[in-house]
Amino acid sequence: MARALADSPFDLRVWARRPASLDALAGHPHTVHDSPADLAAASDIVLLVLRDDKDVDGVLNDGGILAAMRPGTILVNHGTGDPQEAQKFAALAAARGIAMLDAPVSGGGPGAEARTLTTIVGGTPDAFDAAKVVFDTFSSAVIFMGVPGAGQQGKLLNNALTMTNLKNAEDVFTIAESTGVDVAALQRLLATSSGGSFIIQALGTQITPSIASHLQGLMRKDIEHFADGFARLGADVASVRDRGLAGADGLAVVVDIVDRSRTAGDAA
Question: Catalytic residue positions?
Fold first, then answer.
């Protein structure tokens, strides 16, 4: 995402908790700041790409971003988190005259590399309109979902479907492998059939055995955010939560099935 911005007409300024993270920008124009507050003071739009809401709270308050930003500027959280926390962050920013958007992204590392992410946005229409030209640099789709927190809601609903689809894939691919079906051929079939999904096509390509365990942790976090956020709104989330967690837990199993099938095909 940062490389996409660096290669755009925008003046990219960056700060990272780990200096090694900045290596990805080698050869791309950018200015490095020593602290989040210094970055915020020099920026019209600040984009946060952090793991969870606790990290966001840390840089906004302890890191001095909110205190350093000027009224009329825009703050964006691209991480996936709790919709209620997104509303709290937006209220804190609004009290200082700063517009805040919750704008989680879908598409993972490959989508960021290809600049084809889907950016899912909650906040005020005016702030969305002003920030969309920035999101367009790394997105093929930018969807405005509504009020603060709505971007997180959209992302969590998307993730819930992804993870329940993973459980479906684990169940069906396990049956296929155990009965001698060519799983690689099945995956190709599903690419153009009604039973297919984005997550099925990502297995073995974007999602490999080497990263499955890392993704499982993120998926478990996200399905719990989904369950907590929508339970507070009165939704019955138990069955979706349980199947989503089962999908996250089964990720390594189904990735291994796909990997074995591809390895067997290569050997043949």
Answer: 155
